[in-house]
Write a structure and sequence with these properties.
single chain; 2 strands; 4% strand
Length: 106
């Protein structure tokens, strides 16, 4: 999880920091330790955890929906029939008749 300074802080975030600092100072032996916990990114508040979980769920939803839409899209394979659009010459003249065998390799 990123630290608390990854973006410009909003007013609700600033209020949450104050609440976190107060809460941590009640659990810690010093106010400086409480401030360190507030801003180190290792002790996220409930709101931070909720936002992180919501972001994860949104990302998972987008990936799942994209996968389903891609899998459901119709695909059209090429058939085995083709039309020869070239010329077959025999001695400088166009080949005529059924005595010509053609073999194709891929």
């Amino acid at each position: 999880m990123k630290g608390h300074f990854s973006e410009k802080p909003t007013r609700p975030q600033k209020h949450r920091w104050v609440g976190m600092a107060i809460s941590y100072s009640q659990d810690s032996s010093s106010f400086s330790e409480a401030l360190a916990k507030t801003f180190d990114g290792k002790h996220p508040c409930k709101l931070c955890k909720f936002v992180a979980e919501e972001s994860r769920i949104r990302l998972l939803s987008v990936v799942t929906l994209s996968s389903l839409l891609t899998a459901a899209a119709p695909t059209f394979a090429q058939g085995t029939v083709f039309t020869y659009q070239g010329r077959l010459n025999d001695g400088g003249s166009p080949a005529n008749g059924t005595n010509y065998g053609m073999v194709f390799y891929l």
